[in-house]
Amino acid sequence: MPANGPALVDLRQVSLTYRVGKEETLALADATLSIAKGEFIAVVGPSGCGKSTLMKLVTGLLPPSSGEVHVRGEKVVRPIKGVGMAFQNPTLMPWRTTRDNILLPLEIVAPHKQQFRRKRAEYAARAERLLASVGLGGFGDKYPWQLSGGMQQRSNLCRALIHEPEIMMLDEPFGALDAFTREELWGIMQ
């Protein structure tokens, strides 16, 4: 059990093997890890060592081949709620404005999706505040193709934060950014 209290995330001897036809690829082997609420954990390793796989297991996007994943004391058997994810490359939908891309989690994640229409103006204001906090005030009506790569990544981070998730999973979201922007965004994330 983590020193900061009961585990929010708990992996117990988790392994994952990808199977395609007769080929098998071991992506993660015997991972055991506990993370308490409020803890910040960095998983570091070379490309292909299972970092992204670990994120998919914790969030329930993939089931483990063996072992167990628990979040909030419950075994993960399907995608979990209360998670924000930001990936190395921005995954913005080109047909949606920056604001509408950021609002997407509120449209699909409970309990927000039930109240999205009624609270749309409130949620849009929240998105605008997030955009302003990352230096993109006034860019909510722009489409992803109208933004630089760094601006797209900032928008991607806003989308991961908009629903105020209990768990934040970051898969090298600052990797493609210049050092100044990376440092600035780290400060915002903290």
What keywords describe this structure?
190 residues; alpha+beta; four-stranded antiparallel beta sheet; 5 helices; 34% helix; 23% strand; globular
SSE layout and pairing:
Layout: E1 7-20, E2 23-36, H1 51-58, E3 66-71, E4 74-75, E5 83-86, H2 98-108, H3 112-133, H4 149-161, E6 167-170, H5 179-189
Helix pairs in contact: 2-3, 2-4
Q: Output the strand order for the largest sheet.
A: 2-1-3-4
Number of alpha- plus pi-helical segments: 5
Mean pLDDT: 87
E-strand count: 6
Helix content: 25-40%
The portion of residues forming beta strands comes to 15-25%
What is the overall shape? globular
Distance from first to last alpha carbon: 24 Å
Q: What class, by secondary structure content?
A: alpha+beta
Q: Could you give a quick summary of the protein structure above?
A:
By secondary structure, the protein is an alpha+beta fold. It is built from five helices and six strands.
Can you characterise this structure?
- The chain is an alpha+beta fold and 190 residues long.
- It has five helices and six strands; from the N terminus they run E-E-H-E-E-E-H-H-H-E-H.
- The protein has helices at 51-58, 98-108, 112-133, 149-161, 179-189; strands at 7-20, 23-36, 66-71, 74-75, 83-86, 167-170.
- The strands form two sheets. Strands 2-1-3-4 form a four-stranded antiparallel β-sheet, covered by helices on one side. Strands 5-6 form a two-stranded parallel sheet.
- A hairpin with a 2-residue loop joins strand 3 and strand 4.
- The two termini are 24 Å apart.
- The mean pLDDT is 87.
